[in-house]
Amino acid sequence: MEFAEVLRRRRMVRDYDPDRPVPAEVRERLLAHALRAPSAGFSQGWAFLVLETEAERDAFWTATTAPGAPDGWLTRMRRAPLLVVPFSHKAAYLDRYAEPDKGWTDRDESRWPVPYWDVDTGMASLLMLLTAVDEGLGACFFGVPPERVAALRAEFGVPDEYTPVGCVSVGYPGQGDKRSPSLKRGRRGVDEVVHRGRWAG
Ligand SMILES: Cc1cc2nc3c(=O)[nH]c(=O)nc-3n(C[C@H](O)[C@H](O)[C@H](O)COP(=O)(O)O)c2cc1C
């Protein structure tokens, strides 16, 4: 698919055909493409938890959502045959930037203009979203509530120093996919957000 077409088609898909698993080669391409993301200092401080069996996916949803009857969003999202949880690893950046060519040996976090570990893991996540579209599948990036992060780590044996930046659900789109109400906001235009030469407005 043309790159511009991938971009045009990219949108979050929130319902999946539960009877169509993600082909293994597509799953592997998603993951390989994620690793093509840029990273500060080429730190690559990220990790990806891949959940595919019903038991693994159930465990994810149980750990990350409130008990009780699932709402419509959760019912549809639970049909996704593949979940990839991207984790950022801050310590990898502090270690990398303490190396001689960077020299931030004090590991002072105030040196970081923004948390590059989360930025880079977000970029890797976007590559997975785009790859899903390119492969004719759908995907959604969604958040893990902060109060559920400890349960997620405990369930899957994730060390405390890894932080889930969200989760990417992947699969063939289902019939019940609904557009997000947020889309009513409309996409902001270039003239609204781009400042050429000087901040205007
Ligand atoms: C950081 C981030 C967090 C998001 N969290 C959620 C979420 O928790 N649940 C959800 O359904 N969509 C989530 N989304 C998807 C946005 O709602 C979606 O990207 C936005 O409405 C624009 O729609 P589109 O991506 O289909 O173009 C998230 C997107 C981003 C980038």
Automatic annotation (TrEMBL):
SUPFAM superfamilies (alphabetical): FMN-dependent nitroreductase-like (SSF55469)
Domain called Nitroreductase: residue spans: 7-172
Molecular-function annotations in GO: oxidoreductase activity
Record-linked InterPro entries: Nitroreductase, Nitroreductase-like, Nitroreductase/BluB
A matching Pfam family: Nitroreductase
Keywords associated with the record: Flavoprotein, FMN, Oxidoreductase
Highest taxon above the source species: Bacteria
Stored PANTHER family: IODOTYROSINE DEIODINASE 1, NADPH NITROREDUCTASE
Name this protein carries in UniProt: Nitroreductase
Organism listed in the record: Klenkia soli
Upper taxonomic lineage: Bacteria, Bacillati, Actinomycetota, Actinomycetes, Geodermatophilales
